[in-house]
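Internal QA ticket QA-208
Title: Verify multi-chain structure generation after dependency bump
Assignee: T.L.

Test input:
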Amino acid sequence: MKSSTQFRIGLSVLALLHLAVLVPGFFAPYDPAEQDRSLSFAPPTAIHFKAHDGSWRLRPFIYSVTATNDGDYAEQSGPEYPLRFFVRAAPFRLFGIIPCATHLIGVDAQAKFLLIGADRYGRDQFSRLLYGGQISLFAGLLAAALSLSLGAILGIVAGFYGKWIDDGLMRLAELFLALPWLYLLFAVRAFLPLTVSTTTTFFLVVIIIGLVGWVRPARLVRGIVLSAKERKYVLAARGFGASNLYLLRRHIVPETYSVLLTQATLLVPQFILAEVTLSFLGLGIAEPVPSWGNMLSSLQQYHVLVSYWWMFLPGLALAVVFLGYFSVADALEKHVQSASS
Amino acid sequence: MRDLSWFWRLTVPLCLSVQAIAAPPPQPIQRGEQVLLTDNDPGKYGGRIVLALRTEPESLNPLTALDQPSRDVLGRMMADLIHINAVSQQTQPALAESWKASKDGLHYTLKLRRGLRFSDGHPMSADDVLFTFQALLDEKVNSSQRDLLIIGGKPIAVRKIDDFTVAFDLPRPYAAAERLFDGMQILPRHLLENSYRQGTLPQTWTLTTPASQIAGMGPFRLKEYVPGQKLVLERNPYYWKADRRHQRLPYLDELVFIFVPSEDAQVLRFAGGETDMITRLSADNFKALQKDAASRGFQLFDLGPGLDYNFLFFNLNSTVPKDAADVARHQEWFRNPLFRQAVSAAIDRAAIVRLVFHGRGTPLWSSTTPANKLWLDSALPQPPRSVEHAKQLLHDAGFSWSAEGALLDRSGAAVEFSILTSASNAQRSQMSTLIQDDLKQLGMKVQAVPMEFKSVLDRVFQTHDYDAAILALGGGDVDPNSQINVWMSNGSSHVWELGESKPATAWEEQIDSLMNQQLTTLDFKRRKQLYDRVQEIAAQQLPIVCLASPNVLVGARQSIANLEPAILDHYTLWNAEQLYIK
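Actual output:
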């Protein structure tokens, strides 16, 4: 594939996803915390065009489902509930401010439209996926941005200035790698008040993950800077009297772009999952607020693996996001390389 | 090509002989040996059962071992004088063939079986019993069971009458005293007396102790321990039970415990045929395994309600940390019994059973589960969930609601608190998510706070820095005496208010006196009346809001015969000596 097409596809997928999670209330048919205890682990709702009597409908519709005795669900032959667009349902706030109650898609309240099934509490997974993405994607991005910028700055400084600065920074990096984070986080949790609001938790997650993650990019960047500053053209530029700042800006920092980009694409997914570990320590996003981390953590159980395949669909969403990131980064890297050559 | 058949002819039998299990054959029954004849179906010798433990046992010392894996293993290696039958929940003769209590309930005379041997072949006599109780009662040994032998502040006295008769003198009458002997495992004096004299008894019998230096009266004895991998027990050739064909038990050559840390991994091993039994299954995994149980050759047992009970409780401690001003403020609500009653009335216990346990559980309104047939107070009301009733109770207690429906206390502050759960226990976390939603309907804003289990225990038992928490307790026994630590105001599991020197409320004082009374009452009917009263007060005052009890779920290969799973510990191995491979 040409890199420009790849770039465009990747970017539009990402843009669409981020837009969807930016205004989850509009795209999500239900409130993410709303429990429907009669629909525990209900599978995705089948969308029909053909009615039970064999006749066809122009407008897609669904049937309501009820639990059978053995814990499975069966469609009722009863009334048809057509899918409606721009319906008024559970109120939410657009961008967190504007009160709104219009949803992109929905059905009458007697039935439930579960695009990718329900979880244990009968909550709509699709709505949770969108609301959860709001937290996870942005936490992942912010944390990656934090750790990359920290890593890049410290790596460049260490690599370029060398000597005791390099020694000091790299020993600090080793200290960070050697720290027993688990116990440190226990201590952090003990210091915090018992209940922590979701906003606080969000920034906590970003800061903790970001701070833990800067070492790897810093070491990589340092390596590149070390080799770059000995290149002949850099030495030549220096011989012509170029200042340090000029050398960094013109010759050295651009060398690190590709590494930073690949690091970003690796770190974002890693960081989204890291939130699960924090949840385990009581530092993550707590129920009933959804996050991709806590949605995915339920997949690590044998019974979910063998019984409820639709619980894996959020994982698929994650895969799409990462593919998007990878293709964009890949295309960007090719672009940077071709520009520099 | 050269003919290599000579090679196979030599090596194949060699490999096979390594595979075969080398266990000591059962010793013929000696003349005058008072073996206990069991009434199980006579089986055949041979084979092994493999099962998984969550962690490695911490110790093989029955005096100091506290963790479940150690107790699971030791339960097969050791035996007691009088044993509680896991199925009937009644006492039955074990190493003591009979016993007699004096009329006043102060003196017990136990007759030991004659001609029995420890698993190393050394004869057992009254001296071993005396030695065992001496060690159990010794403060320096610091045995976990010592508390049970101290009645009213005074220790039980043990006397030897002859080589096979032992007398126990109680400082005061003690209800169901013969149940005390269950789990008091008889130790070999000849192996342990030296270390007892030297004061190193608590540190002896670790996992690395050579098998030849450990002996017990149980059906199996230690064969080998491979760190990080497995612990193997082999047949005790001198075991004191035989079937009705006078074949000495146990039938199995070996019992192999492997170490598998997570329940999911244990389920995979069991489904894959690597282990032969699985206990403590969650309802989720039970359901998942059910699908292909028949095709994979194992059967699953739902034994109905167990003795474990999950409960929600509020922090009523008078000592909360100074920096936890919120907790102190919230305690004004928690201390109001109407508030606790409202919370209890709003909780959808049926949903907990359905969603958390897939219906394999029982909603609870009392800590005595339906499994405890002897002590269940069937007159106790089981009010169905009612949000209206809960709101009425809150209204009576002076709470009101804001225009948005948020619950406000008398001073106009919104009712917000948190529920602490262990992050590693999925079921209790799930309960908190349901309760959170239930209480939202009362206008309470509840935050579920999952934490690592040790931090939860630390907050509940040490710092008292929490609002409410969900925990589970379970009696190892059906008798109310096993719950005495929960109900007595100075008990170590009096979770809602710890370390009280005297009862904080009139009703706690009443419970204390009822529990003390039942402790020294010998008549069952009268005792039951007293304990029923305790349960009634508890149901009214709700220091713990009982939620649900999970059914005991276990699985085993179909090839295991004489299997009789029960709801008392150990669910499947309690009659390990009778199990055989078909």
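Spot checks passed. Chain A is about 60% helix and 10% strand.
Status: verified.
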